[in-house]
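SEVERITY: medium
COMPONENT: batch folding queue
REPORTER: lab tech (J.R.)

DESCRIPTION
The queue accepted two submissions in a row. Attaching both inputs and their returned structure tokens so the on-call engineer can compare them side by side.

ATTACHMENT 1
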Amino acid sequence: MAARAPRRMSRLPRRVYPFRVLGMGLAGIASAVVLYERQAGWPTWGWMLVIALAWPQLAWLRSRRSRDPHRTEVGNLLMDSALAGSLAALLHFNLLPSVLVLTLATVDKISTGLPRLWLRSLPWMLGGLLITSLATGFAAAPHTSMAVIVACLPMMILHTIGVALASQDLVQQIRGKNRQLDLLSRIDGLTGVTSRRHWQQQAEALLAEARVHGRAALLMIDIDRFKDINDHVGHAAGDEILRALGEILLQLQARPGLAGRYGGDEFALVVPDVDHAAAAALAERLRATVAVRTAGGPGPEATISIGLAMVDTAHRSLRDWIEAADAALYRAKGAGRNCVETSPG
């Protein structure tokens, strides 16, 4: 985890760089029109070109060569705001381009997703504005000509669309991560069967169906002497047995979600629309399959004990149904293990 963190953090410079080039470059177009109209001198033109063209490349080099690219890029983002303030003063506060530059510089900080970065950037913006204003004698010419308005349009349109597309991409990534998290919450990573919480939801729904339509069976399954296997053969061998049992249950379940990992080495399988004879036959087939599968596998041999409980009117809740199957499972353990016992009723 620690080894992967720097690489994950270094994505920030790569994400910010194209927007810095786009934003500063488009701001440079509008600024050039303002400076041309004002017949500004070469020092003013030179500083504008440094901000619009040189700074994005310098910021990229700083981040790439830094031992901590994430931290360096945060510093670059703060400098962006200082330069935005400086550019507004350099333009003698020409209204439209100055407002756009300061606003987009703030929006860029918000779009990074870094907490409170936009607030931290405001003193930097004010500092750049004041220092450059001192150099220009606090000159102000807020009037915006039609030529400048037209030159500002690319900055208004292209930068806004670019930020929107980047935000959409981030939203899609977040949705993908949420889907993965949802899958992880529903599926047991080792065995592939449903996790306990999700299995309980599925079993609750099937129990409600069975009360209306009639028949269903619950199998509680426990690997015999699983602790001894872990202690004497190793946890890797135990994991192989768990995986094998999970694969078998996935093949036997009538529809997805009915096989679940209830505990460490305890599993549950809900079987809809069966009578007792069919459910008992399925349980016996499961028991025999596990014995044969593990006997021929690379790991140790393993057997399972199964408790079977049919849906009954006495089962007022899923907990009652599970307790009936658990009681049958304990009888199977007491009877010597590697067998199937049925709950009376």
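ATTACHMENT 2
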Amino acid sequence: MNTVEDNIEQLQMKVAFQEDTIESLNQALIEQQKQIDDLQFSFKKLAAKVSSIEPSNMASEKEEMPPPHY
């Protein structure tokens, strides 16, 4: 009978450890997602700023001249 109780206690400890690990991983995931969101926002803001400062030096397809061998 004692071994059954020991087994149950070990299983309960394992479950508690797994729950703690899952919660830690969940918190890390939440923090990483927030960092990704912040970086995406900053990147979009920076890209808009750069595109407004410096016009593109590439000609549009309509303005592009065909190569001389045509």
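NOTES FROM REPORTER
The first helix runs from residue 2 to 53.
No errors were logged for either attachment.
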